[in-house]
Amino acid sequence: MLGECLVPGAQAGEVLFANIGLSFMGGVNPKTGEVIDTHHPLNGKSVCGKVLAIPSGRGSCAGSLAIFELLMNGHAPKALVFQHRETILTLGVIIAKELFDKGIPVVCLKPEDFASLASASYAVVRDGSVEILDTPPSSVSGGDDLPHLDLDGFDLTENDRRFLAGAYGEAGKVAMRIIIRTAQLEGANSLIDIDMAHIDGCFYHGPAGLEFAKRLLELGGHVRVPSSMNALCVDRRQWKHLGVGDKMGLPSDELAETYVKMGVKPTYTCAPYLLDGAPVFGQQIAWAESNAVVFANSVLGARTMKYPDYLDILVAITGRAPNADCHVGSHRLATLRIDVPRPLEPDDSYYPALGYHIGKIATNDIPVICGLEDLAISRDDLKAFGAAFATTSAAAMFHIVSITPEAGTVGEATGASDCRSHVVSVEELTETWHELNNAVTPDVDLVSLGNPHFSLTECERLSKLCAGRKKADGVSLIITCGRDVFEKAKAAGYVKTISDFGGKFMNDTCWCLIGEPVVAREVRNILTNSGKYAHYGPAAVNKGFYFGSLERCVDAACKGYVDLALPAWLSV
């Protein structure tokens, strides 16, 4: 079978196949290669040494960081075979090859050819071709070098050429080479200027990520556009007080400081759209962090690809980005219509649950959602919807008719083109609700809030729910938010009210990156209002999980157990 060669090389091995996309970040152990996503059919299996065949990645932009870590520590697959052209994982392979001469072949097959791998035992992958075998193959070799950068037909400015010639230093030269390769991978033949960047690859996931950042700094890397920094693995101001060990705290600090030295602003938030100076409609930006990408495209109407980790800093170093994907107007159109039942009395748990469910339907499509017209949907609701959607879908945006700025009508969202359609039932949403609520006993030991980081309006709402009440002994309630939001919430008195209730705040870090000792070993069940964390949490901390509204979370913190009744919107 002949497919599209995304990264050349020759490898052979046992086939590991799934017909559902896989997020390497949060879904694969970066040290061993074991699939830890409890919602995925490959859960418990190892990608190490396998010819991994999946339709695409999904979820986190940090998939590139995770595959890079595996390549550097020797626990990566032998080859990657996709059904859809995949940028995030492929980019991680390209960077490992460009900077450290470690790579594997990557190929994209036609749907019918990809499907044939479902029953395959072994395969040889060689420079875009895949051969199925019945018996274990002997080792293969050849074609391991990245091809010469072919600039024929690629539109470069004079300044782009100066970068390639090394006029701005070695880091700029390497960055430009990889950006052009990514553009070609996306089918683009030109680059565009971007106004700002958000850097996601700044959290410590292992020694390889730190080595990457230090190499860029040594090569003279420095950002040319305003750049913010995503959440880290630790709260930099209190990780020692929280009991985090030096093994995590020190390299986390070093990695963050390396990016600061490259000119990245230490914002430490996964919700950069909450910062002052957020992008506006039509503005070209380069954001990583899946929830931020989806919010920027869908809610703000700014334009960004779903930037893989490490490509984000390279684009920031040059100020140039592939003229592809959601940077291009025609690529922002909906390709799938999804009709949803109008909810009865929707609370704030409805939107993340719906986003999570729609992401499972629109795995590689930009959806336009119908049925929510004229509902009072807040930006916090859209934030929660988008984060959950980005967890299960590889798409970089969504549309909601009459709610999001590029979907006044279905025709506007689709460009008046015909598209496939799907009707969501209450029964389907009920199944998703149970998927997000997987604990077996009703007791709650920890209430987790702030994934993505809490906004000021969420802090205000939480303070009203907490006012005059006390949490139960033995239950922790912890909120993560950015430093800037925290200071505003403190000035408004929200922090004091929540603290009087017994709640605690953490800055700089995000629940998807938090483990022991913040999540204490004795914790059995966690309740969260985040569809994203309800997905990633079970594998991340090995606890039982409940999901529900903010009010449900506060009530459970007071009682020590969760109300197991279905929300009213599931009785439509």
Could you list some keywords that capture this structure?
single chain, Aconitase, domain 3, five-stranded parallel beta sheet, 14% strand, Glucose Oxidase, domain 1, 4 domains, 572 residues, alpha/beta, 18 helices
Q: How would you summarize what this structure contains?
A:
The chain is an alpha/beta fold and 572 residues long. It contains 18 helices and 21 strands. It folds into four domains: 4-133, Phosphohistidine domain (Glucose Oxidase, domain 1); 158-330, Aconitase, domain 3; 333-434, no CATH class; 439-571, Aconitase, domain 3.
Task: Describe, in plain words, how this protein is organized in 3D.
The chain is α/β, with parallel strands linked by helices and 572 residues long. It folds into 4 domains: 4-133, Phosphohistidine domain (Glucose Oxidase, domain 1, 3-Layer(bba) Sandwich); 158-330, Aconitase, domain 3, CATH 3.30.499.10; 333-434, no CATH class; 439-571, Aconitase, domain 3, CATH 3.30.499. Helices cover 33% and strands 14% of the residues. The protein has 18 helices and 21 strands. It has helices spanning 63-73, 88-100, 111-115, 158-164, 170-185, 207-218, 246-261, 290-300, 311-318, 350-361, 379-392, 410-414, 426-436, 456-466, 483-491, 494-501, 531-541, 550-559; strands at residues 4-7, 10-17, 51-53, 79-82, 106-108, 122-126, 129-133, 191-193, 197-199, 227-229, 286-287, 320-322, 336-339, 367-370, 399-400, 420-423, 446-449, 476-480, 503-506, 525-528, 544-547. The strands form 5 sheets. A 7-stranded mixed beta sheet has the order 1-5-4-3-2-6-7. Helix 11 (379-392) links the parallel strand 14 (367-370) and strand 15. Helix 1 (63-73) packs across helix 2, helix 5 packs across helix 9 (311-318) and helix 8 crosses helix 11. The longest helix is centred in the N-terminal third of the chain and has 16 residues, at 170-185. The model has no long low-confidence stretch (mean pLDDT 95).
